[in-house]
Design brief:
The protein has two helices and two strands. It is of the alpha+beta class and about 70 residues long. A two-stranded antiparallel ribbon has the order 1-2. The longest helix has 15 residues.
Length: about 70
Amino acid sequence: MTPECRKAQLEDFPALEQMLELYQYELSDIWPQPLSAQGRYGYDLAPHKESARLGLPRAARVSKCTRAS
């Protein structure tokens, strides 16, 4: 299976937003960040949804991973 790397589509943004929440959580010990009332860090991806700026963000997708023996 070859990984696919492409410009993110609108349907990719919920997963990207969740991954950024987890990333911010992991960094919260060394980079204090406020939480919203909903308990989220709330990285704003709106500018990326509305702009083709540099073709970012990118989404990578792997359909199936197998363990090497």
